[in-house]
Amino acid sequence: MRILLVEDDPDLTRQLKLALADAGYAVDHAPDGEEAQYLGENEPYDAVILDLGLPKVDGVSVLERWRRGNVTTPVLILTARGAWSDKVAGFDAGADDYLAKPFHTEELLARLRALLRRSAGHAAPSLSCGALRLDPRAARASVNGEPLRLTSLEYRLLHYMIMHQGRVIGRTELVEHLYDQDFDRDSNTIEVFIGRLRKKLGADRIETVRGLGYRLAALPGEDAA
């Protein structure tokens, strides 16, 4: 899952980038509204964390421009505590949730998880696909109750696929949501990670749809979710 963090405070940026990476997300950063607008319009993010008080272009204006341009990525806005008018302006511009500064990082991560679940049509805090279970709160997965040992990239790939289970996902899409902007991307490495996941999940749980991509699905006799 790939997140755009839009924040101009260097200390808060470092803190949030570390927390988001530890939680299993690929993170891009924009320090001002101008860069944020460009990235949001040209890169496929799963969610955006958007500070409203930004240099060059304020956060509300950025959000308004995204929505006018049909950018539908879920957005969590950050506002100054007590600035209720900023919250209203953010929601009216198209925000999906807000968090007032200062805040606990754990609350931001919880709100982000909820935002991602809602955007993908999931209600429960944990995700399931047959006997496969994934807990985004702990960044852990299991099959039939047996914990899986996953690398950070394997977990990130599985997280994205289980969020979009049942749908064929192309290699390019997986690359775009697996790596941050600065990573040297190679779509061929997806095959390697898919192979590793099959060894851990069972060979039949991830289907190859020739010429199109991959589909994660429950095995026959299992409930899909």
Automatic annotation (TrEMBL):
Q: Which segments constitute the OmpR/PhoB-type domain?
A: 124-218
Q: Which residues form the Response regulatory domain?
A: 2-116
BP terms from Gene Ontology? regulation of DNA-templated transcription
Q: Which GO terms describe its molecular function?
A: phosphorelay response regulator activity; transcription cis-regulatory region binding
- Gene Ontology terms, cellular component aspect? cytosol; protein-DNA complex
Where in the sequence is 4-aspartylphosphate found?
A: 51
Matching entries from SUPFAM superfamilies are given as: CheY-like
- Put simply, this protein is called Two-component response regulator
Which lineage ranks, top first, belong to the organism behind this chain? Answer: Bacteria, Pseudomonadati, Pseudomonadota, Alphaproteobacteria, Caulobacterales
